[in-house]
Amino acid sequence: MDDTTPLPEDCNSMAEVRRGVDATDRELMALLDRRFAYMRAAARIKTDRNVVRDEARKAEVIDNARADAETRNLPAKEIAELWEHLVEASIAYELIEWDRIRD
Question: How much is the pTM?
Answer without folding.
Answer: 0.91
